Amino acid sequence: xxxxxxxxxxxxIVVFFLNPLFxxxxxxxxxxxxxxxxxxxxDFNIRKLPGLTEFKRLFADSWLYALLLSxxxxxxxxxxxxxxxxxxxxxMIVVLLSFYYQWGSPIYTIALSFFGLVLWxxxxxxxxxxxxxxxxxxLLGQLAVVIPVIAGLLLVAEGLLIQxxxxxxxxxxxxxxxxxxxxxRFKVKRIWLLPxxxxxxxxxxxxxxxxWPQFTLGAESFSFVPVPVVIGFSQIAxxxxxxxxxxxxxxxxxxTGIVVLVIGLxxxxxxxxxxxxxxxxxxxxxxxxxxxxxxxRSGGYAAPPSSSGVVVAGVLxxxxxEKLNLLPxxxxxxxxxxxxxxxKELYDAIQVNAAHCRLQVADRNGEVRxxxxxxxxxxxxxxGLLLVR
Length: 389
What we know:
Elements: H1 2-16, H2 20-44, H3 53-60, H4 63-75, H5 82-98, H6 106-123, E1 128-129, E2 132-133, H7 143-164, E3 171-176, E4 182-201, H8 204-208, E5 214-217, E6 220-237, H9 242-265, H10 271-297, E7 310-315, H11 320-323, E8 331-335, E9 338-339, H12 343-350, E10 356-362, E11 368-374, E12 385-387
Antiparallel strand pairs: 1-2, 3-4, 4-6, 5-6, 7-8, 7-12, 8-9, 8-10, 10-11
InterPro entries: PDZ, PDZ_6, PDZ_sf
Pfam family, one: PDZ_6
Keywords: Membrane, Transmembrane, Transmembrane helix
């Protein structure tokens, strides 16, 4: 039995790569990288990260969560409806193509597909297609618990991804202030792919695809369906630095997921409590998105221009500037003993002693520190700094 179960899982994974949503996700990840690089080159004449970073991190950051969720969903028997999976996939496609990933949280795609199924059942409850019947969707029974539980767990995964996989991938941008100067803001726009195995009851799929992974439990049969779950995230940090707001936002999303999960379990006693759990998740996640956006738009900039030095907007990974532990928002006052006020003066001062670079830097709190770094041949042309200019 266990050998057959693992064979079914492996077959389901192979089938996953045939899903058109999977290939669309790959194309969108490449497009995100291209758009980011284009924006960075426009402001700084150089890109911070390679254009394929979003593509490479698409699954690298989320595979562990996908594995754990697959084991949980299958292990505790969270059986979903085939029609809901279709609607869920359709909603994710719309979100992907919209590129508005501030609304890419799984709570939105899950809730939209669930309540879309509710509306569909109310309007045309007799619909059926190749063995699947709309009337079979138990929206006031099992699904009223299963869907909120899945939503809660995916929200927890989203929060963890925000905490651990966004800060290092923010993209600095230059924006005009009210005084006509330019300051830095920081944008992160990511999608993550979570290939999750879900259970669908009956032999509807196997009846049309004989080799589809399937197993029986008692008198009931179930099919493994690999679902490419997409989590989208977009946030602009202007008033605060990304490492200040993103961990807090991630923690709030995790807490929201736990609340949805706990309330959703109430669907065991009253189905409408499960429905309410989804609505609570949508409302709280929306409040988080809007409140953070409004807070970042009000007030000043975390990295404004400075008349006393050159403001760091970003640091290239692996560069001499990273070895100097320079951070966005810090201000370089002097290089090799020479006061600097703009980018040209900065690089002119570096070339005074191309083999050794001594900086006088004010950190985000205004405290001045000295640092130095040996620069090897040609490094002074590639210090690795993106500057507010």
